[in-house]
Amino acid sequence: MTDYTRIDSYLEANLDRSLAELGQLVAQPSISAQKIGLHECAALVGKMLKARGFSVQIHPTAGSPIVFAERKGKSDQTLLIYNHYDVQPPEPLELWETPPFEPSIRDGKMYGRGVSDDKGHLVSRLHAIDALLAEGELPCTVKFIIEGEEETASVNLAKFVNEHTDLLQADACLWEFGGVDHTDTPQEYLGLRGILYVELSLELLGTDVHSGLGGSIFPNAAWRLVWALNTLKGPDERILVPGFYDEVQLPSARDRELMEALPDPSDDYKSRYGVPYFTKGLAGGTDLKIEEVFTPTCTICGLTAGYQGPGSKTVLPKRASAKVDFRLVPNQNPEKILSSLRAHLDTHGFSDIQIENLGGDFPARTDPDHPFIKLVVDTAKEVYDKPMAVIPITGGSGPNHPFIHVLGLPVATGGMGYPDTRTHAPNENIRIDLYLQHARHVARIIAELGK
Amino acid sequence: MTDYTRIDSYLEANLDRSLAELGQLVAQPSISAQKIGLHECAALVGKMLKARGFSVQIHPTAGSPIVFAERKGKSDQTLLIYNHYDVQPPEPLELWETPPFEPSIRDGKMYGRGVSDDKGHLVSRLHAIDALLAEGELPCTVKFIIEGEEETASVNLAKFVNEHTDLLQADACLWEFGGVDHTDTPQEYLGLRGILYVELSLELLGTDVHSGLGGSIFPNAAWRLVWALNTLKGPDERILVPGFYDEVQLPSARDRELMEALPDPSDDYKSRYGVPYFTKGLAGGTDLKIEEVFTPTCTICGLTAGYQGPGSKTVLPKRASAKVDFRLVPNQNPEKILSSLRAHLDTHGFSDIQIENLGGDFPARTDPDHPFIKLVVDTAKEVYDKPMAVIPITGGSGPNHPFIHVLGLPVATGGMGYPDTRTHAPNENIRIDLYLQHARHVARIIAELGK
User: Fold this and answer.
1) Taking the model in full, what pTM does it have?
2) Under DSSP, is residue B193 helix (H, G, I), strand (E, B) or coil?
């Protein structure tokens, strides 16, 4: 194998400069759900890429702009790197130890909204590119596609990919995230579940009404929402929308083999999240691991109606709503599920419930035996001092479907996540040692792909 | 009938002075939910009664003090008047046209928090007493019991009544409120439903969790709340807690006769509250009127879980809660319903759901044919120029049970409410013509009871 001593030395010697650059990017709020700072952040990202000799295009979309960048390399191979510059809302603010958009370093960690998801990943990859450029040309061509709506379901990305297949042509794709588990074993996630995220709502009255007046004879939006939700899933966790499971692909023997090789997460979940028990009578082991990622879900993410403050207020609420996400597995189709959901609610007499589609992704997976996956796994071994765990599919979602099924690329993950990284939560943070390791890994991936 | 010309002239001649006194009382905030100004307001009320020659006692309770006052009259009859000096919180402040605690008069109305509920009722009754005292002795003994926790479910009142039956001995009771409907017909409400107000909640995880991670295998508090609520009441509006209806007293033939005499409110409800339809297939008429007040309810007043902001957040909420009120009819018992609810949830596997009791009242009614009710209805006729509508029970709740069932009193209502009086809402107001009419009515009630 190539000697990466000079690369590694560069990465270590310039680490503080790279973290300072990450700090600058984190300090630029870019909250897609709240439409804050997105154009400014896209411009900043473009500037950072131009500074490295990339040709940069900022493409407007119906939502946030998409940043595309390319720099030619020595070989005819091309790596497409997918990242996003938008972040989750920082609320609840009072739970942050330091302000979310004032990044700070303490105890070997850097804190701030987006420091892990996903700005840290982008900047550590730029750090890897700096190290390679310090040696001369890039070993292969590198393209970036960096969107600004990942945290709001990437609603304009698939269309962009479909319309720019030539621009995005590549041989392999590096995904936005990755990381290590609680034993510091690096993870190679080879698939993502799809998602359909909807808001169910209904408004039945012109105003909230005193419950002493309307309770007996006025329709109650909160009750109708409860009854409608109850038709979607029962206490046995079986989802009741007709046809929901029709296209679910069961795990193969190879999937089962890969899942068996993974550690049992059950004790970690209990201590980390205070999980009192698992659903469906599961206790742990391979069955739990398979259930966790190979089954689709219907999750109530939020409920809202009427009075929610302290004490009592005797009100019959005019409106009620629920946020619900469905995680989908191959080969489920979020568009078909949305139609089935509408038909199901209508059939059960809930045509008064409106469905707002807040975003969807198709599920997709990469073949665990693809040569690029082997390259990513092999290059990780030297960096992390232990072999990667190969995970056929993970519970999260993301827009990997157009990359796999439109561009035809193998998609590999790699990154600096770790179990306490708190993405989407207060005190989001990265471990700086993992930041450096990811940069070392990415430099190797680019170098090896160029061979 | 007695000639009340001199009484009426006094009331009219001294109206401005009485309204000024009401203004002083309204300007003293006394918000029981927020524990603001309660002792100060109790002292002010005591002072106002002392100024009229009442002997005044201010009784401490576990919450706000209760003001008791008595002044002997000519006859051996005693009228007990129930009022409260506490008010609802004024929020949302930005919707008030003038500040809630700076009472102001415009277009024949007086505006301010508590001006109707219930300070206006108290001061107009003092105004009636002033008119009677200007003629000499009070025709009968008048006692006041004025509490400071009516807006927070009168949690210490029943105990006080139980422990002071001698002090509170009387022949009849005048309730805190009353008013006219949208045709200016005065209303005689002869009963109040009871209430049990609970918060159902459960917390299953130590933290909110990314829905991609926990959706398949972690228990979801929001789902469990939905399933639990669904066991309480189905879309047919039938409440499913065992034994819930056991003690429900069906309306008598006399009740039905009284209800038939009342106007049909259905069109008014549709236009005033935007009600699209009535539940249980009701269209209007006597069936609707009876269903409105003679049936118990289970109303979801509020729902809370997880993410409730704009757009999507993929979170599995650690906690979920619902505010639920049960309106109870004679002879249901809120304490028994609370036990039945707990047992019902346990039976259905929801022992993880906590029930917080946020307050209760027993239902109670006064016989529509009681002589005191006849007195109140007869005296109203001359004042309002049309007969009172006699309503056997109303949909709201209040602590009339100890007055009716412990003290053994007939309880009559009477007051200055009208459909746009906006109690519990911004721009609470009274019509000054109705303020004066109520004082005229109360003077007659005291005078006739003394005969």
Assistant:
1) 0.88
2) strand
The β-bridge partners of A322 are A200, A303
**Where in chain B is CATH 3.30.70.360?**
194-248+295-361
C-beta separation of A121 from A415 below 8 A: yes
Interface contact A302-B307, CB threshold 8 A? yes
In chain A, residues with a C-beta closer than 8 Å to the C-beta of B210 are 396, 423-424
Quote the strand ranges of B236-392, DSSP E: 299-306, 315-316, 319-328, 354-361, 364-365, 389-391
Provide Rg for chain B, Cα atoms. Answer: 24
Strands (E), B226-383: 299-306, 315-316, 319-328, 354-361, 364-365
Chain A residue with minimum CA distance to B348: A235
Q: Which of A204, A280, A303 to mutate to test the interface with B (most CBs of B within 10 A)?
A: A303
How far is Cα B341 from Cα B196, in angstroms, rounded to an integer? Answer: 11
Nearest CA in chain B to A229: B226
Q: pLDDT-derived band of residue A207, with 50, 70 and 90 as boundaries?
A: confident
Shortest CA distance from B198: residue in chain A? A312
Could you read off the pLDDT of B53-103 as tens digits, one per residue? 999 999 999 999 999 999 999 999 999 999 999 999 898 898 999 999 999
What is the maximum alpha-carbon separation in chain A? Answer: 79
CA-CA distance, B33 to B88, in Å (whole number)?
Answer: 7
Q: Contact B395/A213, CB-based, under 8 Å?
A: yes
Parallel, antiparallel or unpaired: strands A186-189 and A354-361: unpaired
**If you write DSSP's letter for every residue of B2-67 in order, what string do you get?**
---HHHHHHHHHTHHHHHHHHHHHHTS--BGGGTBSHHHHHHHHHHHHHTTT-EEEEE--SSS-EE
Q: Which CATH number applies to B5-190+366-449: 3.90.340.10, 2.30.130.40, 3.40.50.1110, 3.40.630.10?
A: 3.40.630.10
- Topology of the domain covering A194-248+295-361: Alpha-Beta Plaits (3.30.70)
What pLDDT digit, counting tens, does each position of A292-323 carry? Answer: 999 999 999 999 999 998 888 888 999 999 99
A376 burial (CB, 10 Å; 0-12 / 13-18 / 19+) is: buried
Name B36's bridge partners.
Answer: B31
Return residue ranges of chain B for CATH 3.40.630.10. Answer: 5-190+366-449
Q: Which residues on chain A are in Cβ contact (under 8 Å) with B265?
A: none
Q: Do the chains contact at A206 and B274, CB–CB below 8 Å?
A: yes
What one-letter code names the amino acid at B244? F
Please report, to the nearest 10 degrees, the dihedral formed by the alpha carbons of residues A438, A443, A445, A451 taken in order: -170
Mutate to test the interface with B, among A208, A314, A332 (most CBs of B within 10 A): A314
**Could B218 and A88 be called an inter-chain contact, meaning their C-beta atoms sit closer than 8 Å?**
no
> A211, B316: Cβ pair inside 8 Å?
no
Cβ–Cβ of B304/A299 closer than 8 Å? Answer: no
**Would you call B301 and A358 a contact, using CB atoms and an 8 Å cutoff?**
no
